[in-house]
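Reopening closed ticket. The problem is back. First fold of the pair:
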Amino acid sequence: MSSPQEHLLPAETWTHVASHLSFSDQVAFLGVSRMFHSIATRFVFACITIHFVDQSFTETFETDPYFFDDMESVTQRLLRHSWEKLEYIIDNPFFGKWIKTLSVIASSDSPSVFEQLTLAKALKTMPNLKTFYWFEHLRSMRIQHLQIESPHISPRMDSTEPDLTFWIDNLDIPSNTIAALESLWSPYLRRLSILSKHIDGMSLLGFGLLTELELYVTDSEVASELTGLDLVFHHAPMLESLSVVGLVSQEIFLLLPSDPAILSRLKSFRLSAETWSLAGVSEAHILRLSRFLERKLSLRRLSLYLGGARWTTISLLLPTLRQLQALEVFGLHAGGLSMNAGDFEVLASLLTFQMTSIQLVIPWDYPDTSDADVTILAPLLQRLKELPSLKFIHLYSLGILPIIPQDLVTDLVHLHTLGYYRSLWDVHDSCLSEWAPWKVRYAKVEDFDCSDDAWLFKHL
């Protein structure tokens, strides 16, 4: 039924209102009236996920406390829901025009012919599809991720701001990958995620219009992994987001440019290096990183995970970090040794009022969860309570933190999403709704209330 109030404003105005709501509020919008249901449909179902899975998919999550029933029933439920979605899309082609992001998670050796043909038929009803994800969840954990402007590898010529995005994240990429990438270079390419070892053989011209670059380093002992990266920096004047993740060696500190004219548009920077690849971070390395960051004072997003570095070394960055007054999204691995109350006070002082998303990896090696331990964390927890714009927080440690998720959401009243030990919860009126473990593992930008939260959570 409809209410008299909804007719006081035109549908276009309600559509604009709905576009600014969180996903949970858009879902609630569906049940208000027929008109609101029609308006909310284009937002709620703009992103859908299809599962082509067998029992091997759920076996990887069998130790997760999320499972309250047997794995086989979970698999069957995912398959049934996926079939219902595809059937509805095929039977109601008008529905397909609202879909902008489609994700397929496949865990069997390969989808059956029936599944492939059904998916292909559904794709024909999606003229506005912008993003297509394909996740292969095989036991070998080889993942291929393709995100493109349309279901075909070609740009949308009718788009006013075409944006072709191509992602490869695969530890066993065929030898012809470079040739394949070269064939995809076009004036529409803006975001690229690739193994760092393939950069050396690629044309530098293609980097000129990139706005986002993610590099995955897979072998810290191979000298060629970062070869050519300094030249890429020189030839990427439009770059706004840079991430270097994986088995990053100490060579990265020498490659970061100190010239402020290089990467002058950068607004997001992530350096995430595994412990075994970046052991022994020295003061000289931190100094090089500081010089780079000092020339990027307009950074809005920053995430630093410096492998096995200790807090005493990481703390040398503090004067530089305090200069980054534009930071709204902040992630930091605070080192490998336990911190005292004074250290937590210093860490807390880095968290500023404009920050909306925070991710902290806290070294914790205390033997129990006594009141004394909670007192040590008190400066940090108190500071988090004082941040008026904080919508996302993710805390992680190799030890057992004396923190209960429910207590966090009770104290942090503005939270939309809580992360704790790589689990995620939606927060509504201090109530927690846990994400399914496979949703966490294959989390997409569209799954979060804010793209900043997705960016921060992506590489921990």
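Second fold of the pair, where the issue appears:
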Amino acid sequence: MSIDVGFKTEKPFEELIVTPGDLTLGSIVFGFFFGFAVHVLWGAILETRRARRFSAYIFMVWLEIVADVAFAIVAWGYLAKIFPPGLPVFLTIVGCWVCQVQCLMLIIVNRLCILYSDPRQRRMLRFGTAGIVTVISLSTACIWIPAQLQINHTYIWLNHWWDRFEKSVYLLLDLSLNILFIRVVKARLINYGLKKYDRVMKFNQYIIFVSIGMDILLLGVTALHNGFVYTQFHPVVYIVKLHIEVSMSQLLIKVARSTGINVYHEDHGRITSDTVSGNKTTNNVQVHVDTQVFTSRHINDFEMSPRDHKDVAEAASVNSGNGDTMKVSPV
């Protein structure tokens, strides 16, 4: 008996064949996801308490968690024959997947944007990344859903190759953003004397391998004989990536506070100032670094006004032996 999926198909719809091995693998991944998600959920609660207000960053963290949980439940439910095939199931999975990718990429971009003082550069970075992700997401939705509904053989064949291409694009985008973050931290902070941010740069260098490893894992499981089991790995990959971003946010806060920052107290509505200064002499050149960093009380609140970003700056002056002064441009 053929299954009616609500659309006219080239051939009768063939129900997904799930072997005991497929269901076992999917269930193991499903269980691992929820075990790890509890840890990430606790981290998100701590981030929300620390922020004290519902910023865009906090919203994206929680939306990412909700999308991951919904994706995992629906994907496993379809694999276990709990949910019947049809547009509602496939549309829910694609919707959750789009939220996963958009939120994660924008969280990475916002981490980068706190290092740029030029609003134009921040807009280009945000809209450029969002544009790439949106185009790929819409293209994937327009191919993946008809392929799962088995509209015709062309969609099924195209989805087979597009799946791999789309995941390769996100792998390269993730790698590019993390490399850019390392370069900016080194050029704008470490090279100007803020050596404590070296911890942030080294941590990011390590997590690149974990993040890219998860992308490679997701790309590799698309080769499984069951064309749907790999979807169970999606929420695992993105919940791990979210945990990496939350850990990076916590490290940025810890390092910034130990370095000395100007803190905006939301509860008092005023700014208090801590100045970091240092002196070092090299080859008869006296270098005096006077750093003032203005930032939100919680660095994980990435949404700053243009005036706030203008305040996030460093001023360094280098005095040579003959009294000349060289001004270093703000960060």
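Update: turned out to be a display glitch only; the data is intact. The longest strand covers residues 276-282. Residues 259-331 have pLDDT under 50 and may be disordered. Please close again.
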